[in-house]
Amino acid sequence: MYENIATLAEYFKLGVETETIEPNQAKRWADRVIEEAAQPSGDIVDVALSRDVSQLLQALSEVAGDRNKQMAARWLIGTLVIQLEGMRESEEVIRAAKHAITSSGMDESLYWELCSIQGILEMAELGYYGNTAEAIGSLKQFLLSEALTPLLQGSE
Predict the structure, then answer these.
(1) CA 58, CA 60: separation in Å to the nearest integer?
(2) Can you give the pTM of this predicted structure?
(3) What is the pLDDT of residues 101-148, one digit of tens each?
(4) pLDDT digit string, tens, across residues 85-105
(5) Interval 16-36: pLDDT, tens
(6) Secondary element (H or E) of residue 99
(7) Exposed/middle/buried for residue 83 (C-beta within 10 Å: 0-12, 13-18, 19+)
(8) Can you list the positions of beta strands (E) in the chain?
(9) pLDDT for res 149
(10) 3-state percent helix, strand, coil for the chain, nearest multiple of 5
């Protein structure tokens, strides 16, 4: 069921680091993996039993397997699109997306494009240039162009 277990762990790690995903969601995911596995691995058990955010992030980092950081980042960006539509602050979304891009090794030009959108949004909010709705629309378009649908959407 969880072929991409290390990539999913990376998704949850990025999500917790950026406050896009609650720590308990990552622990519930680990609990489901444990329930469904004939022989759960110790690293997943460590995720489920982590007592604080620091321990959780460390355990998520240590989940064994092939880790596709860019895929995890794109899943997180997909989650950010959903949160932006749900009225999460655009500045928080930008901060989280920047972190996902830089920590996953995605193309650096994406980071700078986000910086440009952030600058336009800030100028619109101050009334200097454009309007906020258009700037948020540009942000959403950018995120959609880089997003993958979160694998666990609706099951967290």
Answers:
(1) 5
(2) 0.89
(3) 999 999 999 999 999 999 999 999 999 988 999 999 999 999 999 998
(4) 988 899 999 999 999 999 999
(5) 999 999 999 999 999 999 998
(6) helix 90-104
(7) middle
(8) none
(9) 81
(10) 70, 0, 30
Distances in Å between the Cα of 67 and the Cα atoms of 1, 13, 32, 40, 49 are 16, 12, 20, 18, 21
Q: Which two tokens stand for residue 85?
A: 């539509």
Count each helix (H run) and each strand (E run) in the chain, helices first: 8, 0
> Per residue in 24-56, is it b (16+ CB within 10 Å) or e — as a string?
ebbbebbbbbeeeeeeeeebbbbbbebeeeeeb
**Amino acid letter at 156?**
E
User: Coil, strand or helix: which one is 27?
Assistant: helix
Nearest CA to 27 out of 1, 2, 53 is that of 53
Residue pair 54/17 in contact (Cβ under 8 Å)? The answer is: no
The rounded distance, in Å, linking the Cα atoms of 134 and 14 is 28
